[in-house]
Each structure stands twice: as structure tokens, then as C-alpha cells.
Amino acid sequence: MTETEISRALSADNPARAEAAATVVRFLDVAVAATGRASFYNTRDEQLALEEDAHRTMAALDRRLYAGLVCSPGATDRSRQLGVLHLLGTPAREDDGDTVYAAVAALTVPRRLKLFALLAERRVNNARVRRLILRTVLGSTSLELWSVRYRDKLATALRHAWGLRLSGILRAILTKHLAGGELDSKEHRILAREIDRWAVDRADPAAVRECVAFVLGAEGPYTLPLPVAYRAARTDLDAGAALPLETLEGLRGRYHPDAKPARVLELTAARLTVGQRLAGQRQAARAGVTVEVDLDRYDAVRLYLYAFAEGMTAEVAAALDRRAAHTAAGLDLAGRRVALVLDGSASMRGGTDQPLRPIAAVLALRDALRAAAGTCHDVWIGGVPDGRLVHPAGPTAAAEALVAALRTGAELIVVVGDGYENAPAGRFAQVLDAARTLGVAVPVVQLCPVLAAEAAGLRGYAPDLPLAPVHRPEALELAWCRLMLATDPTAAVPALLRLAHPEVTA
Asked: Domain of life of the organism in this record (predicted)?
């Protein structure tokens, strides 16, 4: 296998091997589980400080591996955003470019635009940033749709790339152009240099100019269908039927306050995004509007959050079963006896900005591990069962659950929880030590759906318990790398390189 910086850092003869492994472990924790939000125990600022430091130290250890892991399937969109921010805000390396574009391409459009807003907020602006923004925005074949759906966010991105002065010049030239005015040679050169050259893959560069004019606030007149519909909807709501839901709803609130929101839903039901279809089911039912939703397009955590809000139906349960079977196919647990210790205590409610996400992750992981194992026993810490759901409640009596799991005769015990124990604190570690003293050798590992800022990563129920972060089942492969780093760092190198650089082979 090609030798890399990380291969040397984690080699058995490197005296700083433990420190290097700890750096990679902490970054994997952040890449898989960080959300930039407060948790039950930590503030948002504490979580953000942990994220920033983990990205900085990992990039310093091995920038190429860092860039590859940012793009790996198990990394969260949040980690991809921070990864791009770090790569663009620090001196470039020749292989950064492809990684940055790959990371941005893996983001949803709203998250790409959030990334561009973060670049503006942090005043990161260099040739690489400008090239990324202009190529991503002006080279898109969906620019017309974006221009009406994300008008303000696009304006922020473009003004950051061009600067306020040049953006004003472009707006003035485009206003003149749309009104039928004759442009001089200098104005033609400006449009060609700043707009046309980024739209090389589009069949109609003139449409790009019109979209830019609309985003920057030029009066028009316009010829493209969506900008035309946007202008028409200010006087006639039904004329905006071709617009996205959030755009037309904004126009309704501003220009047609007497019209009911249900009318907007009726007009746009056929064009709702995947997220809007699931989130809008309750509103659609109240309005008597049918909104089709394909449940197989949502991950298991999202489906559990929906079930907590709207109730578990047979259709949602079936979709969750299909998701679990798909995830289980990649886990090497067939035929094994597994016991799951699952945290359903009050702390699994999570923070106020994204309530119930931790328990939704626990339930999704439970399903995947159940589907993968030969036999599986569940032992819950707290929680109130509600059919397939479990509502967080009660203290964290983790030791009692461990005793029950040890009695099942399992070959592997997987603990899924945040690592906080309070009934009493420290008893889990005592029970595990006693079991080891008595010769009970069954492996016990912990999967954590929540970061603990005060622990600089993850919080374990016992000091020597192998830990891995799993924000969602799709990240289990990265979790496995995390567990290997805790037991045999050298053996983890091939898996890390495979995840970060699929082209590197043994």
C-alpha cells in the first residue's frame, strides 16, 4: 500500500503513535457525530469549539487523509462544510481542489449555500473561494430554479465572490441589457469575464445573465418562466403556480395576506422537495391536499423523528425495516449472538434545537444491529416503550442493564448511549471490571450518538471501553475504524485509507 503521512504516524515504531491515534479518533468522532447544535449536557459554543479544534489538529497531522475523510460516506454534512472552510481558509496544496469540489457536490443545495454564507461570515475570500462559488452557482443547470427558491442566499454568495462594488456594476449593466439598451465593448467584456466564462456547460449563457440579474435585484423585464411567474404572483397568487412552495408562500404572506396557506400547498403539491413532502403531511391532511411521499427516500433517523411527531404507521415501520436490512448487509454479525444495551434515559431527549434526535439514532441503530445479528437481546436503560418507539425518561442506571446483558450469554455486547451515568455514576465500570476479574471475556463496545464537549469527543461508560460515534446507521463503517484505532492503530490504517481514498489499494 502507498505509504502516507498517516501510515508513518500510526506505525508501531513511532513514539508519538498514541497521540496521533488520539487525533484521528477525535476527528472521526466529530466527523460522524457533530451537528453544531447544543446537546442535553453541552452548549452550542462548547460543541463548536470541539469541532474546530478537531478539524485543525487532524489537518495538521495528515491534510490529504483529512480531506478524504471529509468526503467519506459516513461524514455528516456539517463536517463537510467545516472541512471545506478549513481547506479554503488555509494554504492550499495541489490536491485540495478536487477534494473541495467533491465535498461541496455531496452537500444538498441549501447546505452548499449555507457553506457560502459561512465563507462570507468568516471573510474567507481568495481566488479558490471565488472560483468555487462562481463555478458552482453559474455553472449549474438548475440556476433558474435556484434563483427564485434561494434568491437572497445566492445574492449573498455572489456578492461575496464579486465584492459589493463589482456586484453593483454587474447589476447596472444587466439592468441596461434587459431593458434593451446597447452595451459598449467594456460592458460586454465585464459580462463575459465575470458571468459567461463560468457558464460554459450551459446551452444558453443568456439565461445565466438573466438569472444573475434577477438575483441581484434588477427590474427586468424577464423572459425566463420562473422569474416571470415570480413577478406575476405579486398581483395574482395563482400565476405563481410554477414556483417552489417556500417562494410562493413568501409572496403570499407579503402580497396576499388574506389568502390561506392551504392554497399555496394546492398549487405547489406536485413540486415539493423530498423534505417538504414528509414534513408537510400534517398540513396537507388539514388542507385536504394529497401529497405523495416515498418513505424509502428518507434515512432511518429522519423516519423515527417523523414517527415521534406523527405516530408510527405500518408504512413507516415497513420503510424502517427495509432501511435496517440494507444497513445490516454491510455488518459482519451474521450468526452471532448479540446483546444491545440501549440508553432510553431522559438525556436522550437531546437539546431544544433538535429534540429527540439522540433517541431516534438509538432506535435506528437498534434496528440495524438486530437485522445483522443471528440472535439479539435488547436491554433498555430507562425509557417508556410505545410500540416500536421508546420515549426518553428516567435516570441512567447503566450497570443494571449491563448485568442483564451479561446474563444473556451473548458473544458481543453493544452499548448505545451518550456515556452519562447517574444511578449511580461509575457503577457500570465497576461491574465490567468485576466481570473481567471473574473471567467473563465477552467483548463490550459502545456506540455514541452524541458528542460530549467536556470529554473532547466521546464519553464512555467505562474508562477502557472501546468507543465509536454513530450519528446515523450509514456511518457504521467509520465507527468500525474508530474501534480499531482504540485497539490496534496500525491495523486501522488500511480501512482509513480505503474510506478516504478508494483508489489506494493494497
From this structure: Bacteria
d(CA 64, CA 115): 21
- 500 in Cβ contact with 68 (< 8 Å): yes
Q: Determine the straight-line distance between the first and last CA of the chain, rounded to whole angstroms.
A: 4
Residue 60 near residue 52 (C-beta atoms within 8 A): no
List the domain boundaries for the chain. 1-107+483-506, 233-287, 328-471
Amino acid at 443: P
Torsion angle, CA of 51/53/54/55, rounded to 10 degrees? Answer: 90
- Using alpha carbons, select from 121, 145, 119, 142 the residue that is nearest to residue 132: 119
Comparing CA positions, the residue from 307, 318, 276, 314 lying closest to residue 293 is 276
Domain at 328-471: CATH architecture:
3-Layer(aba) Sandwich (3.40)
CB proximity list for 367: less than 8 A, separation 6 or greater: 300, 320, 321, 323, 324, 473
Q: Is residue 386 classed as helix, strand or coil in its secondary structure?
A: strand
As a three-state string, the secondary structure of 440-506 is CCCCEEEEECCCEHHHCECCCCCCCCCEEECCCHHHHHHHHHHHHHHHCHHHHHHHHHHHHCCCCCC
Reduce the DSSP state of residue 290 to 3 states and report it.
coil
Q: From the DSSP assignment, how many helices (H) and strands (E) are in the chain?
A: 25, 7
SS3 of residue 328 by DSSP: helix
Q: What's the CA gap between 278 and 281, in Å, rounded? A: 6
Backbone angles phi, psi at 253, to 5 degrees: -65, -30
Contacts of 506 (CB under 8 A, 6+ apart): 1, 494
Fill in the amino acid letter for 12. Answer: A
Angle between helices 151-162 and 205-216 (to 10 degrees): 100
Angle (CA) 84-137-204 rounded to 5° is 150
Peptide bond preceding 469 in cis form (omega within 30 of 0): no
Q: What is the pLDDT of residues 353-396, one digit of tens each?
A: 779 999 999 999 999 999 999 999 999 999 999 999 999 999 99
The three-state secondary structure class of 355 is: coil
- Express each pLDDT in 269-321 by its tens digit: 888 888 888 888 877 777 788 888 899 999 999 999 999 999 999 999 999 99
**190 φ/ψ angles, rounded to the nearest 5 degrees:** -65, -45
Residue 49: half-sphere exposure toward Cβ, Cα within 13 Å: 10
Give 119-169 pLDDT, tens digit per residue: 999 999 999 999 999 999 999 999 999 999 999 999 999 999 999 999 999
Pairwise CA distance, residues 154 & 116, whole Å: 9
Using alpha carbons, list the distances in angstroms from residue 239 to 225, 226, 228, 229, 312: 11, 10, 9, 6, 38
